[in-house]
Amino acid sequence: MPPDVSLTAVRKSRPRAALSRLRRAASLVALPLLLAGCASGGPSLLGDALQGLLPGDDPAAERAAAIPFASLALDAGDRRGLVVMGAQAGDTTLWPTGSGGLITLHREGLQATAGLPRDLLDTRYRPLEGDAPAAGHVPWHEATPGEFRLERNWQEADGTVVRLSARGRLACRAPEPRELPLASLALQRCEQRLTWDDGRVTTGTLWREAESRRLWAVAETPWPGGPRIEWEVARPWW
């Protein structure tokens, strides 16, 4: 079955409106911090960080060690480097990448992007069986992850908005050492396989802490033909 690209105006606007609200939230948090830096006699380190990827040639670990704020080491193609959290609303966090760019995580997983050549607009998970609400379900928070359903909306470079669903499976191994920018932790390596309704398959690797089930690192292709997006937690926000 070909992907459903004939979305109504209402369905098209919903993920964009959600992303717009998140951007405004990030701006409202970042602005007073930036102004505080100016009032103290010059731009603050946090102010610089909130404007996007941190400048400099030092490795991400060195920059993260020098900055006492929640941060990620990000590789999203043309957006690569250390990013600092700009805002948090419940389980959702926003990470400005500069020039209007933004990475949005929900419960540590990729929710949306902005500023890339092709952007993820929205992500929704639901269990394959059962009555758990989609808004409260992410597979990596399950004690024993299994199969699930996923729906994503994304925008192609020509502006076309695509909506497609997938049947997913997440399988986690026993904890093993994993090097992160500022620590070495025992994490479970979880392999994700998404079989999309049009027959294509994408994969990802998620690293989670076994007790809390929080994600510390992810490398995934969020949709068929989409970009490879990877990140590692440098300083956690929880």
From TrEMBL:
InterPro entries: YmcC_sf (IPR023373). It comes from the Bacteria. Gene3D superfamilies: YmcC-like. This is YjbF family lipoprotein. It comes from Halomonas campaniensis.
